[in-house]
Specification:
alpha+beta; four-stranded antiparallel sheet; single chain; five-stranded mixed sheet
Length: about 625
């Protein structure tokens, strides 16, 4: 038996900015209604003027299973509001099952309505009801004395209740099409919930001091850009006006994003005023400083920011981020010693003008605002070139595996083959090209894209040289290039079998035992970059940029990338589980990095790394390595 649940709530707090933990703690947050259904029974409605259903109460107390789309929201609302305000029995995390997590693991959309539409189930989400829900979730208005006036007329309440019941029907219909998580993946999901419940501590004092610094700097920059453009650009963040101004003075550009500004600054004989404007843009348009607001919104009364990770946020199973988005923190320009000096000065009220522009300082200090709670410290360790290592292992590129395992410099070894030069004579510039080849060419990248990637890193490689380097990589790493073709052929044959049996999903098994899932496979003809026509698999997937459900042709390089990233994720998930068991509570992960918060008298960084690089039986021979740091603050 399982009970499906959906809450409809209201609050003066913006859930999208704060996340559910801060939202649920706010006094203005309350429940409009809850719909619930035992198995596939017709949904029942509870409203705050009603007593709790005895049948549901007994079921909860006995540890019965609960199910919801994005169960983290329902679980937190239940335990924060229903328990504390309505005296309902508390639920355990282990009771909750998340249909959104299951859908994500099957390559389906994370939005209930979108998933229901893609699966073509007979119960669909009520679009008109959703618009009403969004309106009723916020106050109609707030009076001068702070009283919130809500949209709670009888007709709207009736429509909201019907919408809530339909959400439960839709979720049940979708759940019937989903595959249950196996035991191992279920444990990973529960670990994700514990990590999000713990959160990370924010140095709110530092944030407030940095905000003042950044705001003052931005005012100065806005005044300066307005002065030098004679008022044509009044704010440095106004990219459209700045582009028009640059075009007016002969600088042909369609954008003033980071990459375009860097390229324009590299132009010869740039007029000093134009250079000054571009430098102002570079210094003042740091979007990362908007994270100061995000951090403050997400921090609870205890200064901890919770709910920052998204389980299975990427199709490969990797975590993604939300709210503060720690996955896209910019890499600091300054060294940590200087950042620590800046922090000490800011807290002492001493000027930091000599250290640079305030907005740049704010960007550099974002990581440093995450701190350990009192009498604790942070341990953070990052897997070293994990994708390149896993790729060499899964493809059976034995010499590359041996070099990684022995601690050799694989980038120099690659450069040796590229330049036909002994390893000991490889220059730093040549090593960088070797590094670009190892990290960039493993998924079938062509010469044109390789040259573009090199250029983005400040390395000039012409078309002929790029073609030669890509050719050397593929010849030297023939097991990898063979793997692309073999995995594509095998996947094509597997999909033929799925299609013949009228299946909706194709599954690609991983060495960990988990499978990657691809929706609605069909055979199409595609043209290769070299002009050859060949059969390929096309699937339906969610575009990570547009968030739209779209078609995508699957080829060997992409499959290889999926397998490698998914395998790396499974290695990290296993390490996180081992760390938990050894008393190293995980509070966050960022790409291939794990951050733990431990008591001052517990554990060592060396032990943490040992636990991370422990190779499970299924990955025997994979040359994993990691390195890390520890301290009172998170740093890079």
């Amino acid at each position: 038996m399982i009970v499906s649940i959906d809450f409809e709530t209201r609050s003066a707090v913006d859930l999208r900015k704060t996340g559910v933990y801060v939202y649920a703690d706010d006094p203005s947050t309350d429940i409009w209604c809850m719909a619930y259904a035992f198995d596939d029974e017709e949904p029942v409605i509870w409203t705050p003027d009603m007593e709790m259903d005895v049948r549901l109460e007994d079921y909860i107390v006995e540890g019965g299973k609960l199910r919801a789309w994005n169960s983290n929201f329902e679980r937190v609302i239940w335990n924060k509001i229903m328990v504390e305000r309505y005296r309902w029995p508390r639920t355990k995390t282990s009771q909750w099952h998340c249909t959104m997590a299951q859908a994500s693991a099957m390559g389906l959309p994370r939005a209930l309505g979108q998933a229901a539409d893609v699966l073509g189930v007979d119960q669909q989400k009520d679009g008109a009801g959703r618009a009403l829900m969004l309106r009723m979730a916020r106050p109609r208005r707030t009076t001068p004395d702070g009283t919130h006036i809500w949209w709670n007329t009888p007709d709207k309440m009736h429509a909201l209740i019907e919408y809530c019941k339909q959400d439960v029907r839709t979720e049940i219909a979708v759940a019937e099409r989903l595959v249950e998580m196996d035991y191992q993946e279920r444990q990973v999901f529960l670990l994700d919930q514990r990590i999000n419940d713990r959160g990370v501590m924010l140095d709110r004092d530092l944030l407030q001091r940095v905000r003042v610094l950044a705001d003052e700097t931005k005012e100065e920059i806005d005044a300066e850009i307005s002065r030098i453009t004679s008022g044509e650009v009044t704010a440095i963040t106004n990219g459209v006006d700045l582009v028009k101004w640059l075009n007016k003075y002969g600088i042909a550009t369609k954008s003033v994003d980071k990459q375009h500004v860097a390229r324009m600054l590299a132009l010869p004989n740039l007029h000093p005023v134009i250079r000054h404007a571009l430098e102002l843009r570079q210094n003042g348009a740091k979007s990362s400083t908007a994270k100061l607001d995000s951090m403050e919104y997400a921090a609870g009364a205890d200064d901890r920011m919770r709910g920052l990770l998204v389980y299975h946020g990427a199709a490969t199973g990797r975590w993604s981020g939300k709210l503060v988005q720690p996955q896209n923190f910019p890499r600091p320009i300054k060294k940590q010693d200087e950042l620590n000096e800046i922090i000490a000065k800011l807290k002492a009220g001493v000027s930091v003008a000599k250290h640079g522009t305030g907005t740049l300082i704010a960007s550099d200090l974002l990581r440093s605002m995450i701190i350990a709670k009192p009498e604790h410290r942070l341990l953070f360790a990052d897997y070293s070139a994990i994708e390149a290592r896993v790729l060499a292992w899964v493809a059976g590129e034995s010499e590359l595996v041996k070099t990684f395992a022995a601690g050799g410099d694989v980038y120099k070894v690659m450069a040796k083959d590229i330049y036909n030069t002994p390893v000991e004579e490889i220059t730093s510039a040549q090593r960088q090209v070797g590094k670009m080849a190892i990290l960039g060419c493993g998924y079938g990248m062509g010469a044109k894209r390789f040259a573009e990637q090199c250029k983005a890193m400040g390395i000039e490689v012409d078309a002929d040289e790029a073609k030669r380097i890509v050719g050397v990589y593929r010849e030297t790493n023939s097991a990898i290039s063979n793997y692309w073709r073999n995995i594509e052929d095998e996947f094509l044959e597997d999909c033929r079998e799925v299609i013949s049996q009228k299946g909706s999903f194709a599954r690609l098994p991983l060495k960990s035992g988990r499978c990657l899932t691809y929706h609605n496979p069909r055979i199409v003809e595609r043209e290769t970059p070299w002009g050859e026509k060949r059969e390929a698999v096309e699937v339906d997937t969610l575009n990570s940029v547009t968030r739209q459900w779209t078609s995508q042709v699957i080829w060997g390089g992409l499959l290889t990338e999926n397998v490698v990233q998914a395998t790396a994720r499974d290695l990290m998930a296993g390490a996180m589980t081992r760390l938990e068991m050894a008393g190293y509570p995980v509070i966050m992960s960022v790409h291939d990095e794990i951050i733990c918060e431990v008591p001052d008298n517990h554990g060592t960084l060396a032990e943490m790394i040992d636990l991370m690089v422990e190779v499970p039986a299924w990955a025997n021979g994979c040359p994993i390595a990691a390195e890390g740091k520890e301290g009172p603050r998170y740093e890079k």
